[in-house]
Amino acid sequence: MPRSAGHFSYLNYMKIAQRIVLTVLIVSVVAACRNREENSIKKVELIDEQPSWALLPFDKMDSVNPLLERGNGVFFCPVRKDTVQWEEKDVFNPATVVRHDTLFMIYRAEDSVGKFAGTSRLGLAWSIDGEHFNPHPTPIFYPDNDAQQKYEWEGGCEDPRIVEDSSGRYILTYTSFDGTTARLMVATSPDLIQWTKYGPVFSGRYRDVWSKSGSIVSDYLPDGRIVARKINGRYWMYWGDVNIWAAYSPDLIHWTPVPYEKDEKPEIELRHYAPLVKELKIVLGPRRKKFDSDLVEPGPPAMYTDKGILLLYNGRNVPDIGDTSLAEGTYAASQALMDKNDPTRLIGRMEQYFMKPDKHYEIQGQVNHVCFIEGLARYKNNWWLYYGTADSRIAGAMMKGR
């Protein structure tokens, strides 16, 4: 029997009502998912930009930058046996240390003569406000007619980091360059002026493998001193300029690189010279699609904290495999956190840089698009970060007391 017109209208009404309810439910669910996703993204972005363990934020000191530029100082080079304008070409990549309430900066300077048109030596400058520096007229550390000349000439002595030991002796890690191989070296001083060189930090087959950038795990004390700290009876250091590796030492002079355990192996592509040391454990490596896609390199001495070991580091970009918004070869800075009981275990890492080249003196120079952090100081109740710009000048950033 055919359905009546009234029954047909009722059925249509019920179907339309069901569709309306279903549509409302779908819209509500989609909106809720979007809200959850947006909230999640906001939380991730906040964590990525400024995790609770990171030392942030730093503001570039635009009113006084660059803090130090090339000079006209004259120095008699004992190896060349002639006078040179030792910082005529460029000054960059500074380390910092607080001594007797004064902030000292040890920086790399290049002349413009010789095989490489630039032998590197280390200069010294001092400041009582963190912003204005007075350079010493001659270098305080340089290639000499000594046992290390074969490693240091004629490329020179580069890229210092400096800490103290428990007795107040200064421990300097630096890079020597003989024209073929860069080697991580160590020296000590009681006063930042008189130095004793000990040669390469590594022995055996690692003595002649490319190595750079020694960042010793230290306590940053309230009085400004940076004092090397033992963990499980050993001193620790991060090093390398492709990947970041780790090494340990009983005395801050002789160091042993950390190898992989028997069941461990590299989890990333081995780039540049890394295949030569494929047995060494990578504690921090480059990341594809990021600002640090090509290489990573330690910055200032690593900081021991209650939350872990804070490592400020430098990363270099290659747009083809990295961040397409950054120029080829851009050096930008970021931060990572290691386990305070196991310095080889990464437990946190910023997804983005906190500093990149955006000033004219950071973008143009001997090497374009470079902010290379190397000196960190706790001074006058503030944090001061010093960096090389375009391998040509020195600039600073500051974070108010924390």
Summarize the structure in words.
The protein has helices at residues 5-49, 149-152, 360-363; strands spanning 59-60, 74-77, 82-85, 90-99, 102-110, 120-127, 134-135, 156-164, 170-177, 182-189, 196-200, 215-216, 218-220, 226-228, 230-231, 234-239, 244-249, 256-257, 282-284, 295-298, 303-304, 309-316, 331-338, 346-349, 371-379, 382-389, 393-399. The chain has 3 helices and 27 strands. The protein is mainly beta and 402 residues long. The longest helix has 45 residues, at 5-49. The chain is globular, with a radius of gyration of 27 Å. Mean pLDDT is 90; it is low at 1-48. The strands form 7 sheets. Strands 12, 15, 16, 17, 18 and 19 form a 6-stranded antiparallel sheet that branches. The protein has 2 domains: 1-49; 58-399, Glycosyl hydrolase domain, family 43 (Tachylectin-2, Chain A).
Helical content stands at 10-25%
Structurally, the number of domains stands at 2
Termini, distance in Å?
86 Å
Tally of separate helices: 3
| CATH H-level homologous superfamily name of the largest domain | Glycosyl hydrolase domain, family 43
- The helix/strand class is mainly beta
The radius of gyration is 27 Å
CATH architecture of the largest domain: 5 Propeller
Overall mean pLDDT score?
90
Outline of this structure?
The protein has 402 residues and is mainly β.
Provide the descriptors you would attach to this structure in a database record:
mainly beta; six-stranded antiparallel beta sheet; Tachylectin-2, Chain A; five-stranded antiparallel beta sheet
